[in-house]
């Protein structure tokens, strides 16, 4: 390869000023598309007193389309003509396989072309080197030059020392190097690997330390980079160390190679972190133009854990103590197993040392544990087993059936310690399990401990919450509150008694008929209950399990939870609450705690049964239940967020009714926009016909007959009722609302005010307006994008005081 044939492109001042302009826009706090942080550095030793601006994007913004550049690491400056110049240009941000659309294997296969250059992902910190107009050699880290006292600075100046060292060995000056880089209009990109300076995971002793040149980028906004052959050549010429390079022509060879290395975690006898793959990406549909493009393949769990096991096994064989910091519990278990196997079969050790049987030993262990490797790695907290310093990020996960006291114990704990609780029944819309986890994680930002109030009676539910939490929050610890079902008859008796006793207190309920339904649902849960087994998947993923006895009553259980948690995580509960405090907390939870009971829930035990019924009925049109009303259900989260932000920062008087609704739990848990009620069928016969037809023809299992975007416009309220005026963003006009003002009822003062009175409020509002002595207040809801609502046929929906239990049942069925 000939360096004189290297890619070249000169800078275009106009393009540069355009670039700087849009980068500057990005520094504006109100910037919508992306955000940039600009930092200016004066260059010490620059004869012209030059300074450079560093432009730093937020990592996640790189996933957005239409950025002015995707350079990660970008510095600009001004030259003598007062033109903007790119001083340093990093690589385009590149992603892991599977991390973004383009890096899914099928897209890589479809859109890229070889040669595929694989370089080892060196394990140090990145250093950029380039030449300024006045002959200064600029050496910087990703976002900083050597002139400030932060961490990156020390990287940059350590890099500078290495550059000096290597220039000295080839007898060149800084200025010569600067001129060379400037002449080529490039940035040299190197990895600083030096244990003396900073120890990374992989070892770089004195013989290996230095600057590893891995790329040379042309200083233009688009990404143009030297092929690796030229990079190596340049490295030789200028005294850099070189990174290992492997070139493959086709993508399947690349994939196989990477997966093989991943299996062993080692390459050429050396542990590696991963590979960067450089290739061409088709930039047009016809695949005639290709641009330089990188992706990476980083070894992640479970491979890192396997590597640890391999090293530990070798230590064991050598009679040395195995060292490990991560995956402590599972690694201990693995070693116990490995020790037994090694003792049983003396040949195994010898073979293992020759790298045979490594994989089968670990696979045998996983099979023995009934675990998949990825689960084993995910489940256990990677920060090891020392729980004495745990002071937050704890999720309490009940394993129970209805009436065991999950909510009571949970509420009592929130009362005692100010912890968070997320109730599954407050979550609605699509993808409930994932959104439950989302809510738990966001609550963890405000509370050290969050109770994930859900039955989790089946293993798959536990697996879901454990996996989803740990996937997104590696530091989290999950603790099971195991309401043991050993004595099933006793559990059945106690929970029924509690739940029905409570039901009887509600005069509106037809006790007998509802009772049977409730018992049916409860039985369903008991039937599906799968006991907790901390030794195997998925319960293995709990940090530990607190065994509770549902029959013992919530007071006893609360105390048990507190004592056990305190034992395990002393920092979490520094002071044991007094008996009286616990008495009070449980009393409050049982007596005062009232969930909002205005939920609307389908009057049935199982959606599947329902569907079956519907199918049967559809053969006999007379029997089919008629449509009651058509409405759009709107995700509660979005509505609540909109309300919160609308009321944030407004005067106390304006907030008063909203606060009242919140505190008295009168905010609807489910929100919908009513389009039309059966009652107006005479008035709008055609529309009603259309809706009933739509509903009748709908094949959907979950009652969904369509989707419609809903824009929340303003909140209107008096001292009795609150509604949000909405606009249906429905291009085709499929969904017509017959109410004068399409709206969502947020809540009413008490049961005497019916939600449909929103219509009266809004009519009055249209007539007399708001403010002054109208008694009506209104506010804009922050205008965001529309919220996607789901059209449901509500024929089978009715209200029930048992909504809580129904809801559990529905959620459960939906999850199947
Ligand atoms: P969950 O379905 O597991 O959330 O159970 P809850 O916490 O809602 O409890 C079911 C019912 O039993 C509620 O009405 C509670 O107020 C009541 N309850 C909970 N714990 C106790 C207890 O220790 N003693 C009595 N008598 N009632 C309880
Ligand atoms: Mg509950």
From TrEMBL:
The keyword Repeat does not apply. Residues 595-627 are annotated as: Disordered. Residues 595-620 have a biased composition (Basic and acidic residues). The keyword Cytoplasm does not apply. GO terms for cellular component: nucleus. This is tRNA ligase. Belongs to the TRL1 family. Residues 553-789 form the tRNA ligase phosphodiesterase domain. GO terms for molecular function: ATP binding; GTP-dependent polyribonucleotide 5'-hydroxyl-kinase activity; phosphoric diester hydrolase activity; RNA ligase (ATP) activity. One of its GO terms (biological process) is tRNA splicing, via endonucleolytic cleavage and ligation. It is an enzyme of class 6 (ligase). Residues 70-304 form the T4 RNA ligase 1-like N-terminal domain. The lineage of its organism: Eukaryota, Fungi, Dikarya, Ascomycota, Pezizomycotina. Keywords: Ligase, tRNA processing. It comes from Xylaria flabelliformis. The active site is at residue 121. Its EC number is 6.5.1.3. It catalyses: ATP + (ribonucleotide)n-3'-hydroxyl + 5'-phospho-(ribonucleotide)m = (ribonucleotide)n+m + AMP + diphosphate. Residues 395-550 form the tRNA ligase kinase domain.
């Amino acid at each position: 390869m000939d360096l004189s044939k290297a890619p070249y492109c000169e800078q275009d001042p106009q393009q540069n000023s355009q670039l700087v302009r849009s980068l500057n826009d990005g520094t504006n706090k109100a910037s919508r598309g992306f955000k940039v942080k600009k930092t200016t550095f004066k260059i010490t030793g620059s004869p012209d007193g030059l300074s450079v601006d560093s432009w730093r994007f937020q990592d996640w913004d790189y996933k957005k389309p239409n950025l002015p550049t995707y350079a990660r690491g970008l510095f600009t400056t001004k030259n003598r003509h007062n033109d903007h110049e790119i001083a340093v240009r990093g690589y385009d941000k590149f992603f892991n396989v599977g991390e973004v659309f383009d890096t899914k294997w099928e897209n890589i296969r479809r859109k890229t072309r070889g040669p595929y250059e694989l370089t080892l992902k060196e394990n140090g910190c990145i250093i950029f080197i380039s030449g300024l107009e006045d002959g200064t050699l600029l050496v910087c880290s990703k976002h900083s030059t050597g002139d400030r006292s932060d961490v990156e600075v020390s990287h940059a100046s350590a890099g500078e020392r290495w550059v000096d060292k290597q220039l000295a060995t080839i007898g060149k000056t800084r200025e010569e190097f600067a001129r060379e880089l400037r002449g080529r209009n490039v940035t040299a990109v190197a990895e600083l690997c030096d244990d003396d300076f900073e120890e990374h995971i992989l070892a770089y002793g004195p013989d290996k330390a230095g600057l590893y040149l891995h790329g040379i980028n042309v200083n233009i906004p688009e990404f143009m980079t030297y092929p690796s052959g030229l990079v190596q050549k340049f490295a030789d010429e200028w005294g850099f160390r070189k990174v290992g390079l492997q070139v493959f022509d086709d993508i399947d060879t690349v994939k196989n190679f990477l997966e093989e290395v991943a299996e062993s975690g080692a390459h050429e006898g050396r542990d590696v972190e991963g590979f960067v793959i450089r290739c061409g990406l088709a930039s047009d549909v016809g695949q005639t133009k290709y641009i330089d493009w990188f992706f990476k393949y980083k070894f992640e769990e479970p491979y890192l854990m396997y590597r640890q096991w391999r090293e530990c096994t070798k230590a064991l064989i050598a009679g040395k103590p195995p060292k490990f910091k991560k995956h402590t519990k599972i690694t201990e278990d693995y070693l116990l197993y490995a020790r037994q196997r090694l003792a049983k079969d003396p040949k195994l050790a010898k073979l293992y040392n020759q790298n045979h049987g490594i994989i089968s030993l670990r696979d045998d262990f996983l099979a023995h544990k009934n675990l998949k490797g990825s689960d084993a790695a995910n489940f256990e907290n990677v920060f090891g087993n020392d729980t004495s310093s745990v002071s937050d990020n704890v999720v309490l996960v009940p394993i129970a059936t209805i009436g065991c006291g999950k909510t009571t114990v949970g509420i009592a704990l929130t009362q005692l310690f100010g912890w968070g609780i997320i109730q599954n029944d407050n979550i609605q819309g699509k993808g409930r399990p994932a959104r439950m986890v989302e809510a738990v994680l966001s609550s963890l930002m405000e509370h050290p401990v969050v109770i994930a109030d859900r039955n989790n009676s089946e293993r798959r539910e536990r697996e879901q919450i454990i996996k989803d939490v740990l996937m997104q929050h590696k530091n989290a610890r999950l603790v099971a509150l195991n309401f043991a079902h050993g004595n099933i008859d006793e559990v059945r008796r106690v929970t029924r008694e509690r739940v029905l006793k409570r039901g009887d207190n509600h005069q509106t309920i037809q006790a007998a008929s509802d009772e049977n339904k409730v018992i049916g649902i409860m039985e369903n849960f008991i039937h599906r209950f799968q006991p907790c087994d901390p030794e195997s998947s998925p319960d293995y993923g709990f940090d530990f399990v607190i065994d509770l006895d549902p029959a013992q009553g919530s007071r006893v259980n609360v105390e048990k939870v507190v004592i056990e948690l305190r034992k395990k995580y002393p920092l979490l509960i520094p002071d044991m609450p007094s008996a009286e405090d616990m008495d009070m907390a449980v009393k409050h939870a049982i007596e005062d705690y009232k969930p909002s009971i205005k939920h609307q829930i389908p009057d049935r035990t199982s959606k599947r049964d329902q569907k079956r019924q519907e199918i049967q009925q559809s053969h006999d049109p007379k029997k089919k239940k008629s449509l009651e009303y058509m409405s759009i259900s709107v995700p509660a989260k979005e509505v609540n967020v909109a309300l919160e932000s609308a009321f944030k920062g407004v005067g106390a008087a304006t907030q008063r009714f909203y606060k009242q609704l919140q505190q008295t739990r009168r905010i609807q848990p489910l929100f919908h926009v009513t389009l039309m009620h059966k009652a107006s069928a005479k008035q709008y016969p055609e529309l009603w016909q259309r809706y009933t037809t739509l509903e009748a023809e709908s094949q959907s299992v979950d009652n969904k007959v369509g989707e419609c975007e809903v824009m929340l416009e303003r909140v209107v309220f008096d001292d009795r009722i609150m509604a949000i005026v909405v606009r249906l963003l429905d291009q085709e006009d499929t969904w017509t609302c017959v109410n004068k003002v399409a709206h969502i009822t947020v809540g009413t003062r008490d049961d005497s005010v019916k939600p449909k009175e929103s219509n009266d409020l809004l009519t009055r509002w249209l007539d007399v307006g708001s403010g002054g002595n109208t008694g009506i207040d209104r506010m804009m809801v922050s205008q965001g994008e529309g919220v996607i609502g789901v059209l449901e046929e509500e024929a089978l929906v009715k209200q029930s005081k048992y909504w809580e239990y129904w809801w559990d049942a529905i959620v459960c069925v939906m999850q199947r």
